[in-house]
């Protein structure tokens, strides 16, 4: 008989996040995302600097902390990729709960970051405000809507659902930062994080779409081993 504790401690044995080459590519992208945490994004300020309020002119505040924190989602992305490459157990229920809490907090923080733009308090141009609101919130709303509508199929692959959630939360904040700091002045070395982020958001977006495509077809229910 199947041990009931096995269902509680592991993901379905047939769940996969993709082939080894795709997971290796995903790991490379996640490593670049981790690098962004320490690279200057604009005005020689990295996401790590933002969350520790080390902003030029002592201007660090809650907004900078909230906009810098989602970049740290790169670390659980690496964790999932390493498990996909080297472990038979992709995730555990406890691990997934922790990930969803982090995703929820990140999305909530991004919504708070959007408030100054929504209230016309950010001092940005009209196109920047429209872009930030439409893309930042749009990514979250669209992804959440698809997750909800296809929940019966998507959550049969719970680790993939977590991966979609992590990429969505990361991407929503990253796109916001790319738009806000697109006009930042200074040499390339002072905004290298911006350039790296511009390169990794596209494969992240493709991965979200691919993840939805992989779960769009209903899967037959698992049969229990006897």
From TrEMBL:
Keyword Transmembrane: yes
Entry keyword set: Membrane, Transmembrane, Transmembrane helix
Membrane listed as a keyword: yes
Protein name: Uncharacterized protein
Transmembrane segments: 20-42, 62-86, 98-118, 130-149, 161-181, 193-213
């Amino acid at each position: 008989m199947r041990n009931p504790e096995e269902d509680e401690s592991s993901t379905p044995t047939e769940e996969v996040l993709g082939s080894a080459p795709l997971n290796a590519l995903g790991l490379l992208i996640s490593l670049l995302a981790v690098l962004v945490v320490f690279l200057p994004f604009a005005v020689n300020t990295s996401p790590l600097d933002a969350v520790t309020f080390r902003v030029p002119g002592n201007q660090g505040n809650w907004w900078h902390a909230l906009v810098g924190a989602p970049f740290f989602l790169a670390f659980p992305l690496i964790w999932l990729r390493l498990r996909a490459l080297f472990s038979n157990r992709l995730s555990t229920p406890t691990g997934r709960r922790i990930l969803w809490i982090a995703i929820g907090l990140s999305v909530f923080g991004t919504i708070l970051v959007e408030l100054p733009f929504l209230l016309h308090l950010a001092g940005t141009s009209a196109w920047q405000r429209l872009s930030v609101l439409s893309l930042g919130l749009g990514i979250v709303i669209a992804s959440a809507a698809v997750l909800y509508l296809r929940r019966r199929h998507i959550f049969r692959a719970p680790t993939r659902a977590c991966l979609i959630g992590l990429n969505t939360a990361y991407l929503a904040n990253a796109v916001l930062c790319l738009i806000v700091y697109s006009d930042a002045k200074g040499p390339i070395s002072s905004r290298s994080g911006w350039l790296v982020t511009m390169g990794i958001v596209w494969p992240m977006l493709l991965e979200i779409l691919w993840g939805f495509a992989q779960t769009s077809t209903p899967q037959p229910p698992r049969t229990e081993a006897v």
